[in-house]
Amino acid sequence: MKRIVVTKQFFRLYFSHPLLIINSSRSRVVEELEIKSWVSSLIAETIGTAPTRIRKLSVGVMTEKYIAEMSDGFNYMVRSYPISRSHIVKFEPDVIERCRANGLRVPEVIADSRLDVHSPHQYIIYKMIPGTSLSQKIGKLRKRPLSAIAGSVFDQLSAMAALPVKGFGELTSADTASSKTWTIFIESTFREGLEAIQRDSILPIADIEKLEFVEQHLSSIPACNKSGLAWGDVSPENIIVDERGAFAGLVDFEGTLGSEFALNIGYLWARYAGTKFCSHLLPNWQPSPEENMRAALYAVVRALRILRNGRAPLPLGRRRDPIDEVLPGWRSALDYVCTDL
């Protein structure tokens, strides 16, 4: 079989205009073969051994994920980023390494594209944590092991929050965020979100009025003055458990922000309110009234950070789902904030 050579022109086209390639059924097959060939070559050059198989994960809307299966059983994940998300490579590998250096159970980063000057796009390679995602096992777990997993996740997130970050919001490095203060982070999120919502007529008038009410009263919510690493991707999909069903580690740190622990709870509220996982994690948290209020606000912030993109497609070209399908708990959080103000 003739070896397929992946060209820089192909990757520039694919990551700039993925739909141009996806529109052709033949190009779809060629695309898969070329990317898998590139992943295989990348692993062989990085690890020193060629993988026995390259498998693309079907999940993911922000990055492409490929598993390189090795003969020794130690598999590797290759995550490639479209142009709109390429800035994440500037901080995510360092965030993971910072967490790992402080005893957190996270993957071992093997390589990334920052030093690969010939790479046509951005990527991270890390050694996979053995096990499966909690989302695949949660339906079979009894109360006690699930509570133990939730307790371990809580401890990991608490340890992350204790790692100081200068600033709030989106990270620019492993220990620095883009907004100087919590107030700037929150106010800019509301402003950008509301502008997009009104421009593209995404939400009903009643929702817009509630959001505007909260925006007008943000100053009455006690600000957070201490920032640490907040995971931002609190999801059973990103929690790894071993074959016995015990906690093994956390993966996917592209959504990490500079904030407080309560942001994790707010993001959990927005996406998983009322679920089995949420009900086991929340009892570990004993917040002050101010922290509880900010957690509800963070659930709204998570929705606004998505809504600020308007009707633009997701980074990999797929159409965005309605916000209530992505974050079914955000409205209850908005009502909570409105009632408490």
TrEMBL record:
<dbReference type="InterPro" id="IPR002575">
    <property type="entry name" value="Aminoglycoside_PTrfase"/>
</dbReference>
<dbReference type="InterPro" id="IPR011009">
    <property type="entry name" value="Kinase-like_dom_sf"/>
</dbReference>
<feature type="domain" description="Aminoglycoside phosphotransferase">
    <location>
        <begin position="54"/>
        <end position="270"/>
    </location>
</feature>
<dbReference type="Pfam" id="PF01636">
    <property type="entry name" value="APH"/>
</dbReference>
<protein>
    <submittedName>
        <fullName>Aminoglycoside phosphotransferase family protein</fullName>
    </submittedName>
</protein>
<dbReference type="GO" id="GO:0016740">
    <property type="term" value="F:transferase activity"/>
</dbReference>
<dbReference type="InterPro" id="IPR051678">
    <property type="entry name" value="AGP_Transferase"/>
</dbReference>
